[in-house]
Task: inverse folding
């Protein structure tokens, strides 16, 4: 008996089940949070909120206070009597507890499948899912079941409301109004579905575009990396070739200088010998001995043809670095690298960066317009640089970096072999014309 009384105290008066997440209204009555929430939602347009138990009214939606103690007790009962929770809402007309499948708002009764078959099919008998919360489906004024919907006031009304304050208004049954609203909602749902599908298509298109761009970027990156790597290798090879030419010329000049030094050293020894003989004669006090010296010695003191040749040796006879040849080697090598690049398949989206023959014709030097700039050995001997006198004018890699053409920063200025072949100097054809 005590257990039954305790169960009654823990039963929600709306769903007739043990409390689930119980909350308490300001009046002190407790309900399941979901049950009382549904009731308050239906009362929202009525202008006042009422407690399903005591009918206490509130102009504002009452605050729901969580009842932790009641929840703990309810959970304890539910765990010890789980089979009683499965009964659900019983049929009003069955003697034994049979679960109801529908609730008639007009009859205010819950029906099982057997009694539902015998129930009236008229429109005024509105059927809903099984529920015990019939209070929120009754008119708050006349306490009658809500059967109609006033389209002008957008409110659910009972039969007395229809004949009273809503007389002359456009009124529909709840089912009719519900179906119309469902139709509108279906149309809205259809539009939203169409918009969602369109958005999904755009998302897929953008995803595909991103994949394409990523693939293209990977390909371009690979090609550019390979191109830069190849250019770097060619530049390194060109550097070795130019430095090798410089070393060759340096060695050649060094050998020539060594040979001249050897000749001059021999001359110095010979002169030292002659100077010693003369000093000996000068030291002799006997004039006869001095005057009777060999005539051959006198001839030996004079310059021979070999001595004249040795005396005519000048510093510049050792030669100098052929800066013109080095410049030709460097410029022709750079032009060859650029030509190789332009002959390759052009990298997509980089056409504006590559030198085009058609768009760069104004910048290419022509042999007819550059004749004044070419230096000839015969006509420019006075301008040839000497190592000793022009050291301040020679361009050094460290001091003239801003003037040297770099592939990365001067691609638009490099000469192309195909369009400037008349101007490129070859080692074999540049004996009389050097480009500094």
Result:
């Amino acid at each position: 008996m005590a257990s039954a009384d305790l169960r009654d105290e823990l039963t929600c008066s709306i769903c007739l089940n043990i409390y689930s997440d119980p909350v308490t209204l300001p009046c002190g009555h407790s309900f399941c949070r979901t049950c009382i929430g549904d009731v308050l939602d239906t009362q929202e347009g009525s202008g006042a909120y009422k407690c399903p138990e005591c009918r206490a009214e509130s102009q504002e939606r009452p605050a729901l206070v969580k009842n932790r103690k009641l929840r703990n007790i309810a959970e304890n009962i539910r765990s010890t009597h789980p089979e009683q929770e499965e009964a659900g809402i019983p049929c009003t007309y069955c003697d034994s507890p049979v679960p109801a499948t529908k609730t008639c708002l007009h009859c205010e009764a819950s029906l099982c499948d057997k009694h539902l078959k015998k129930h009236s099919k008229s429109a005024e008998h509105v059927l809903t899912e099984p529920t015990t919360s019939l209070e929120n489906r009754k008119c708050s004024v006349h306490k009658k079941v809500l059967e109609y919907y006033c389209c002008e006031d957008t409110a659910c009304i009972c039969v007395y409301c229809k004949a009273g304050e809503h007389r002359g208004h456009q009124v529909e049954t709840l089912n009719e109004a519900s179906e119309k609203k469902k139709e509108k909602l279906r149309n809205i749902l259809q539009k939203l579905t169409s918009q969602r599908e369109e958005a999904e298509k755009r998302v897929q298109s953008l995803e595909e575009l991103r994949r394409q761009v990523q693939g293209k970027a990977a390909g371009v990156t690979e090609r550019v990396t390979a191109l830069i790597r190849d250019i770097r290798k060619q530049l390194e090879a060109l550097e070795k070739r130019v430095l090798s030419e410089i070393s060759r010329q340096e060695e050649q000049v060094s050998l020539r200088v060594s040979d001249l030094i050897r000749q001059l050293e021999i001359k110095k020894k010979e002169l030292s010998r002659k100077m010693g003989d003369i000093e000996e004669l000068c030291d002799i006090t006997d004039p006869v001995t001095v005057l009777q010296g060999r005539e051959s010695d006198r001839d030996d003191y004079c310059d021979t043809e070999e001595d004249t040749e040795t005396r005519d040796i000048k510093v510049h006879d050792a030669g100098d670095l052929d800066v013109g040849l080095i410049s030709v080697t460097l410029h022709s090598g750079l032009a060859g690298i650029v030509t190789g690049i332009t002959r390759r398949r052009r990298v997509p989206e980089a056409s504006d960066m590559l030198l085009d023959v058609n768009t760069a014709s104004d910048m290419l030097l022509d042999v007819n317009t550059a004749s004044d700039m070419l230096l000839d050995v015969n006509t420019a001997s006075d301008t040839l640089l000497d190592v000793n006198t022009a050291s301040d004018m020679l361009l050094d890699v460290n001091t003239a970096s801003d003037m040297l053409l770099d592939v990365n920063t001067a691609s638009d200025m490099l000469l192309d072999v195909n369009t400037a072949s008349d101007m490129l100097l070859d080692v074999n054809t540049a004996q009389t014309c050097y480009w500094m």
Summary: The first strand starts at residue 22 and ends at 24.
